[in-house]
Write a structure and sequence with these properties.
Elements lengths: L6 H21 L7 E5 L2 E4 H17 L4 E4 L13 E9 L1 H5 L6 E8 L2 E9 L4 E6 L4 E3 L2 E3 L11 E4 L9 H12 L4 E3 L4 H10 L4 E5 L3 H13 L3 E3 L12 E5 L1 H11 L8 H15 L4 H7 L10
Parallel strand pairs: 3-4, 10-11, 10-12
Antiparallel strand pairs: 1-2, 4-5, 5-6, 6-7, 7-8, 8-9, 12-14, 13-14
Helix pairs in contact: 1-2, 4-8, 4-9, 5-6
Amino acid sequence: MSSNLHPMLNVAIKAARAAGAIINRAALDVESVRVSQKQVNDFVTEVDQASEQAIIETLLTAYPGHGILAEESGSAHGAKDSEFVWIIDPLDGTTNFIHGFPVYCVSIALAVRGKVEQAVVYDPSRNDLFTATRGRGAYVNERRIRVSKRTQLKESLISTGFPFRPGDNLRQYLQIMNDVMTRTAGLRRPGAAALDLAYVAAGFTDGFFETGLWPWDVAAGSLLVTEAGGLIGNFTGEPDFLHQRECLAGNPRVYGQLVPILHKYSKFASAGEKAQVRQAARTLLTGGGAAAAEAGDGAAPEGDGE
């Protein structure tokens, strides 16, 4: 731990590394890990639970008066009325992990009066540690990071997540993909939203969008993005997105070009825009052009969950 870092960030780093050690040990024999389903295509493992327990114990040992919001245990631990709330995803990318696909991470954020002030995203398979404190910049392995400098959407690499739960609007997502893929240099689906946001902050990708996300998926990553000079919000470009379950991030120029494309797919779009989206989706699935067909072929395979 560094003496130059905020004390609370140092504790978060300690917690993330403890969780990462648990994950790395389990990754050596991933086939022996016990897996259960929260719902179809939504998995939880004993590693998620052990990782979360290690994080919570570390945080509450240092700050027993703080609150906890964690993916697996919710608000069961910590103080219930604290202005300080740790938002935790102990293993983002569980489906990747149980298949031995090395794209997953630990995500820990501290929100103070609803605003994220500290952030850690730790990739244990690569030993990459992304950190940020509000007003002090974003870092990976103690090296300052900035969002990319690309200004043209057609030259940009964008990451996303595919629908994977029952009830997800696959038809609409195919349409979004068609709109984005035809305007960019490429679309990627790594499978861990917290790491996707860290990669936007580091300039590895130029933008990211996804729906259906929870606060623990995006809280830490959101601070990394803004401290690296990027923008993050909902699909209409409004910054109050944390509990809205839709997220758009990118460097400022790319973000500004994605908002006009994605805003009509927002839950906050007008009734007229939503009607146009529904009509276009019907056209897409009934043979609305070569680009649509290419976007639809196997774009969201069954079981592609996080």
